[in-house]
Amino acid sequence: MGFMSNGRVNIVITNRKLRYTFHKNNKLDGLEEHGELKLPPSVLEDGKIIDKAVFSEQIRQLVQEHKWKRKKLLFAVPDDTVVIRQLDVPAALTREEARGYIETQLGSSIYLPFANPAIAIDFLEKQGDMQQVLLFAYPKEKITDFMEVFEEQGLRPIVADLTSLSVYRYYMSTRQEEKPHHVLLIHWNEDALVLTAFKENKPIFTRHMKLEQTNEEVQWDRTIDEYLIEINRIIDFYRYSITKGAAQIELLLVSGDFAGLPQLKGRLMEETVYKVEDFQKDELPAKYADVLGLATKNEG
User: Fold this and answer.
1) How many angstroms separate the CA atoms of 276 and 253, rounded?
2) How far apart are CA 4 and CA 1, in angstroms?
3) Which of 51-55, 87-91, 220-224 has the weakest average pLDDT?
4) I need a labelling partner for 60 at 20 to 30 A (CA). Which of 28, 133, 149, 235 fits?
5) Does pTM top 0.85 for this prediction?
6) 266-277: pLDDT as tens digits
7) Can you tell me the distance from the alpha carbon of 183 to that of 181, in angstroms, rounded to the nearest whole number?
8) Which of 221, 228, 218, 233 is closest to 254 using CA atoms?
9) What is the pLDDT of residues 184-241, one digit of tens each?
């Protein structure tokens, strides 16, 4: 079992559950084990650790049971407070210089709904002497709290990611056909619905909605009715506000652990003109798309 020392742990966190895989590499065929853990109530709220002692004990048990001590860890945090924004910076700047430039503008010309953000950037296209940049911002203390627990329990966290990016990465790595240019990811978990629009494989807009738990099947249709309205609003917003009428959503990609996802897919196929795809026919249950996508992320 010496190869196990080269593997890594991948964990996706929601406010109610924790999904994990252990892979011997960052390829999907490197999967060694997978599972899901239901978190006790009120351990996490709004993507933040509320009861650190209980969460830490949950992680301790996982590490001990699976012999993960000193293993590398990639983890994805809830997308509830992420900000994704397009900005322009001088085209002459390198990636690191652009990131530093944006940091100097925080609180003056660039405003975020929280202080002390962890930020990352991605380059889009150049327009003359300006470079379009995609800014990702997340409250740094939330990430730090998770990292502290993981480190205390013997894991070696090396990368934090967003769940929506992980799901889309899994889609990109498992579908061989030509990919559409404009995709709306409908990531519906028990506790939240996150709508993320991807343009040319880049996430350029996200909308998070906190949900009340709806485990009873009789409530699913009513819940789906309510949020189909919001999904259609985002589709229109993308077409008329983001792309200024130049493009529209081509694919609705459905994922998450909400038990009513098959009903949602059926409604989308009946009531919209867009192609609809999900992960129901994949080898593992569809809810594992997020952590499998995380498992394919490079560590650099």
Assistant:
1) 6
2) 6
3) 220-224
4) 28
5) yes
6) 999 999 999 999
7) 7
8) 228
9) 999 999 889 999 999 999 999 999 999 876 556 667 888 899 999 999 999 999 999 9
CA contacts within 13 A on the Cβ side of 236: 6
Cα separation, 277 vs 185, whole angstroms: 10
The residues pairing with 247 across neighbouring beta strands, listed in sequence order, are: none
Tokens representing 253 are 């990609």
User: 131: which 2 tokens?
Assistant: 């470079």
